[in-house]
Write a structure and sequence with these properties.
This protein has 296 residues and is an alpha+beta fold. The protein has two domains: 134 residues, Periplasmic binding protein-like II (D-Maltodextrin-Binding Protein, domain 2); 86 residues, Periplasmic binding protein-like II (D-Maltodextrin-Binding Protein, domain 2), CATH 3.40.190.10. The chain is 25% helix and 23% strand. The protein has a five-stranded mixed sheet with strand order 12-11-13-10-14, with helices on one face. Strand 11, helix 4 and strand 12 form a beta-alpha-beta unit. Helix 2 packs across helix 6. The radius of gyration is 24 Å and the shape is globular. The N terminus and C terminus are likely disordered.
Length: 296
């Protein structure tokens, strides 16, 4: 009964308070903050949050499981460096890439995991025109490009220099920016595209001749032939992909800029190429947006 009375009393005080009044209900339970309008900073509510970054563990040399099952790679190292500068607690989590993004009826959508906030960001994703309707992004930290991959020997005689691709069947991975929208922006005419659930499925489609060309951001795929021509589907590079309205970029971008200005970004790039024995697509001059404008 006492609890009920307290609730009624608080409601009554709130109800009779006029705009500009100094009345305040000291015994009312605290209300959930309006996260859409609240700006979080180093001293704000998110100081005690653990920020989670999702990878699928199959993207060598950026985020992969080593022979002992440890998650490692350039993205893992970069996130650790940026979070230390920003004084944030950060963890890596494993999930299927479709929890970040997927394709349905030729449109890129945010994945369930990102939308439900199972994690806060998906590193290693390309910012593109058609993704900007579904996601926010941090400043880019890697260069990227798009390539054409065929079965060994290019049995379909695909020529990437032509503008009419309509006689070839394309495939791309679900959620990829290397899609029909990008081909249209490149001025290419296409007629048939098969959405592959993953890379093994895309490889099978090429090898059994169901598809002629895989359009992807990869420079090497075992058992297939990646043609030397390069295109761009991106709007700036590879970044951490975020749920719309995320506050992560507000602390990430200044911390990443500090990493670049200190020379540690370039050192991390050079050290990682030795550490992982692979080429890292680091940016020669990473670009930055202002902390007030987290969208890239």
């Amino acid at each position: 009964m006492a609890l009920l009375f307290t609730g009624v009393l608080c409601f009554a005080i709130i109800a009779i308070s006029l705009p500009g009044s100094s009345w305040a209900c000291q015994r009312c339970p605290s209300r959930k903050p309006d996260l859409d309008n609240e700006v979080h900073n180093q001293d704000g509510e998110h100081d005690h949050k653990t920020w989670l970054f999702s990878v699928n563990g199959r993207k060598r040399p950026y985020s992969f499981l080593d022979d002992y099952g440890n998650l490692t790679g350039f993205d893992v190292d970069l996130i650790d460096e940026v979070c230390q500068i920003a004084k944030k607690r950060c963890k890596m989590v494993l999930s299927e890439f479709t929890e970040c993004s997927f394709t349905s009826r030729d449109i890129n959508y945010a994945g369930r995991g990102l939308m439900a906030e199972w994690f806060d960001g998906c590193p290693g994703y390309v910012n593109s025109i058609d993704r900007e309707g579904a996601f926010d992004f941090t400043d880019p930290y890697l260069d990227t490009y798009a390539s054409f991959t065929v079965a060994p020997g290019n049995p379909s005689l695909f020529d990437p220099h032509t503008s009419d691709y309509s006689e070839f069947t394309f495939t791309h991975l679900t959620g990829a920016v290397t899609n029909s929208k990008c081909l249209a922006r490149l001025g290419k005419k296409v007629s048939g595209i098969i959405i592959a659930a993953n890379l093994p499925e895309a490889k099978t489609l090429l090898l059994n001749r169901t598809a002629d060309v895989l359009f992807s951001p990869r420079s090497k795929i075992t058992g297939l032939e990646v043609l030397p021509e390069r295109e761009h589907c991106d709007a700036g590079g590879t970044a951490v992909m975020l749920k719309k309205g995320s506050h992560l970029a507000q602390w990430w971008n200044p911390a990443f800029e500090s990493l670049v200005r200190s020379g540690q970004y370039q050192k991390l790039c050079e050290d990682s190429q030795v550490k992982y024995n692979r080429t890292i697509r680091c940016m020669a001059s990473p670009t930055h947006s202002s902390p007030e404008s987290p969208e890239v």
